[in-house]
Amino acid sequence: MGTVTAAISISAAAAVVSRPVDRRRPRGPGAFRCSSSAAGERQALFSRIAPVYDHLNDVLSLGQHRTWKRICVSWSRAKKGDRVLDLCCGSGDLAFLLSQKVGLDGEVMAVDFSRQQLQTAADRQEQRWKMCYKNIKWIEGNALDLPFPDCYFDAVTIGYGLRNVVDKPRAMQEVFRVLKPGSRASILDFNKSSSLFTSSLQSWAIDNVVVPLASGYGLTEEYKYLKSSISQYLTGEELEKLAKEAGFSVAKHYELGGGLMGNLVATR
Asked: What residue stretch is flagged as signal peptide (predicted)?
C-alpha cells in the first residue's frame, strides 16, 4: 500500500485499525480529535445502533435505501481496477457495492470511527462472502484526519455520514485532498429540503414512523437524534458551495426519493 500501513486482517472477533505512515502534510493547529465530546457522543450513538442498523434501514425505507446506495456508487464512476474510499462506511453497504465495481484488481478502503459498526461490517463480509470482497480493508479512522496520502483514490463515497461529522468543511477538504484530479466524490444523505411540504413530510415520518419503530428496539433517543441532525445539515445549494470552497471544480446536488434524500456529486 505504499505510504499507508497495510491493514490488519479482520476476523469476526476484531475490527481493523490502520495507521498512517506518511501523510504528506502536517497537521494544522487545533486539528480535530475523536476525543471531543460531540464526536464521542456520536461515536457512542452509532455503536449502540450497530446491531439493528441494517434491519431498521430496510424497514424504514421499505428497502429503497438499497436503490439510493446503488445510485450513489454509480455516480462515483468507480470502475475495474480502481482504488476507492468509502468514508463513514458504517455496516458496509457502499463498500460491498464498490467492491463489485472495482473487482479483484481494485482496492476498497472502508473507514469509520465506530469499531462496533466495523465489526458488524466484517461479520456481514463473512456471511455474504464473494471473492471480490477480498479487496475490502476495514479501517478505524477519523474523517477529519484521514490516514492516506494526497491524490490516492480514484473515487470516494459517503453514505449518511457527512451529516454526522462535526466539522463538515474540514471533512470535505480531506475528501478533496485524497482524491486524484478529475475523480469524483459521491455523497448520499437525507435531503434538507427547501420545500415546506417535503420538510414537513420528513418531520412527520420521523416522529410518527421512525421513532416509534426504533423504540421497539430500545433506541428511542438514538433515533430522535435523526430529526435534529437533518435540521442542522446543509441544503443542496449549501453542499454545492461547501464542495467548491474545498476546491472541487464541479459540484451538483440531486434530490432522490421524492426529495427526502439527496446526493452530492463533486469532481476534483
From this structure: none
| Per-residue three-class SS string for 187-247 | EEEECCCCCHHHHHHHHHHHHHHHHHHHHCCCCHHHHHHHHHHHHCCCCHHHHHHHHHHHC
pLDDT in tens, 8-57: 233 323 334 343 333 333 333 222 233 345 556 655 655 555 556 666 66
Q: Are 108 and 80 contacting, i.e. CB atoms less than 8 angstroms apart?
A: no
Q: What is the pLDDT of residues 160-184, one digit of tens each?
A: 999 989 999 999 999 999 999 999 9
User: Is the model's pTM score more than 0.90?
Assistant: no
Residue (of 150, 185, 193, 151) closest to 168 by Cα position: 185
Strand partners, 188: 159, 263
Q: Is the pLDDT of residue 224 over 60?
A: yes
